[in-house]
Q: What sequence folds into this?
């Protein structure tokens, strides 16, 4: 099989992948793979903003670190956390040079907002669609780079280490194409599609984690899954629309089925501004007390003009669902949102496999601990993808990128049975929603292991559907394994 050579292959076109490409040496030949269209990624869905210390008079690195530690249950990697916080402002400022526009005050300074878990206003934002603003601005810059080839609608179907090179099997236009590189960057996003309901986009199937796992990379704390407390509760769609943390940051109230505030019972000081995991658990506690799973978010008291100007995208989305958030509460409920665990990396974004890097949601830098603080995700994506690029740049040796020949297995095989992904989603939703159900996890782990063995050894045709089923099953297997181990350690299950 003939493989075309590149200096770096970047898998994923969210903020991490795009920003890495912009910071890599311009002499390098870079291939960027986008599973679907360039703007379909979790980064583009990020509403709130980027958390960074941009106001030295009223904020400090130590305060940002403290807030992140509190939210993360003090389980954070403190060395990487300090890197994140201290280098973050540099990368936020770099975004301005790449054409990103943040909301401004009348004096021209960046308008910083507040979100749950933060003790200071430190969130730089673009209305309520910050992620989309950053992604589209960076896409425009990357597309102007002569050294970067971007392939949209290109599914990575295989990635393996062969000697000092990585071999990639990519499907585009129903054909297999083969590439090789000395350095690979996984920026494949989250695992949301392992659940029945998620705020994540359709591409979030954990592919990068599966490929890294099968290359022997360390996977760490994959059971550190965050459930956002305020997803729009239409209970019909698998992909749930997120109502940003910033809505609570700007003064919205959480209401129970009786349209009464309840957070003061559980969090008398922080109330609605408690971290996400705390609020999600409070909602479940209130559900148990009231016997109802109906909950609402109400910001109508802030006035129509403010709401429409500050949250134009959320306002329009909610209006399409039949609710006017300027006049009435809107239904919300917790939903799978983010992964804090992932492919273990060091402070330079390097995995335990030489030449393999990971950035963004698929990576585990440890900065978030057991629960991510609002708007630290885009910051992590920026800081550590830049550090990855700098590390690759240090080791770069110019060479002619031509073609190489390798023996590689053919993709043919038998058709994939239907229903595997749906079964995995149901299993995960029952086994681990906000709080783990240790007995369900133990009961379901055996079935997931059966499915994993079937997919790995069944001789199926290598297609995008097969890879996604394999990825979701692998992710579920790792998560439930961690949950069961925790249940045994706590003496809850035998």
A:
């Amino acid at each position: 099989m003939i493989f075309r050579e590149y200096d770096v292959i970047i898998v994923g076109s969210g903020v991490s992948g795009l920003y890495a490409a912009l910071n890599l040496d311009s002499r390098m030949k870079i291939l960027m793979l986008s599973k679907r269209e360039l703007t379909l990624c979790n980064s583009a869905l990020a509403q709130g903003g980027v958390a960074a210390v941009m106001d030295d008079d009223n904020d400090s690195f130590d305060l940002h670190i403290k807030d992140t530690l509190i939210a993360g249950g003090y389980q954070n990697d403190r060395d990487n956390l300090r890197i994140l916080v201290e280098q973050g402002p540099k990368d936020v400022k770099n975004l301005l040079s790449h054409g990103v526009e943040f909301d401004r005050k009348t004096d021209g300074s960046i308008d910083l907002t507040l979100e749950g878990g933060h003790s200071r206003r430190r969130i730089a934002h673009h209305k309520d669609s910050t992620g989309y603003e950053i992604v589209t601005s960076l896409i425009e810059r990357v597309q102007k780079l002569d050294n970067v080839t971007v392939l949209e609608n290109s599914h990575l179907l295989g990635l393996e280490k062969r000697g000092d090179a990585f071999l990639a099997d990519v499907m585009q236009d129903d054909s297999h194409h083969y590439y090789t590189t000395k350095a690979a960057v996984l920026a494949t996003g989250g695992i949301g599609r392992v659940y029945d309901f998620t705020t994540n986009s359709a591409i979030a199937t954990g592919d990068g984690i599966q490929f890294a796992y099968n290359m022997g990379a360390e996977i760490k704390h994959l059971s550190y899954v965050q459930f956002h407390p305020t997803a729009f509760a239409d209970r019909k769609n698998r992909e749930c629309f997120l109502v940003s943390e910033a809505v609570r940051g700007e003064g919205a109230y959480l209401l129970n089925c009786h349209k009464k505030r309840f957070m003061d019972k559980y969090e008398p000081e922080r109330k609605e501004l408690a971290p996400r995991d705390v609020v999600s658990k409070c909602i479940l506690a209130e559900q148990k007390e009231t016997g109802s799973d109906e909950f609402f978010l109400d910001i109508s008291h802030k006035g129509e003009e403010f709401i429409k100007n500050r949250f134009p995208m959320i306002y329009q989305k909610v209006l399409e669902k039949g609710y006017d958030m300027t006049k009435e509460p809107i239904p919300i409920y917790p939903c799978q949102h983010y992964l804090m665990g992932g492919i273990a990396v060091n402070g330079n974004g390097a995995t335990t496999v030489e030449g393999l890097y990971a950035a963004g949601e698929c990576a585990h830098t440890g900065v978030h601990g057991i629960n991510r603080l609002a708007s630290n995700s885009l910051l992590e994506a920026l800081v550590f993808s830049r550090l990855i690029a700098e590390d690759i740049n240090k080791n770069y040796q110019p060479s002619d990128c031509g073609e190489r020949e390798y023996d590689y297995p053919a993709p043919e095989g038998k058709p994939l049975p239907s229903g595997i992904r749906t079964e995995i989603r149901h299993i995960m939703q029952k086994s681990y929603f906000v709080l783990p159900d240790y007995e369900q996890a133990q009961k379901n782990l055996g079935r997931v292991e059966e499915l994993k063995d079937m997919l790995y050894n069944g001789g199926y045709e290598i297609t995008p559907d097969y890879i996604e089923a394999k990825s979701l099953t692998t992710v579920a297997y790792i998560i439930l394994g961690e949950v069961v181990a925790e249940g045994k350690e706590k003496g809850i299950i035998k």
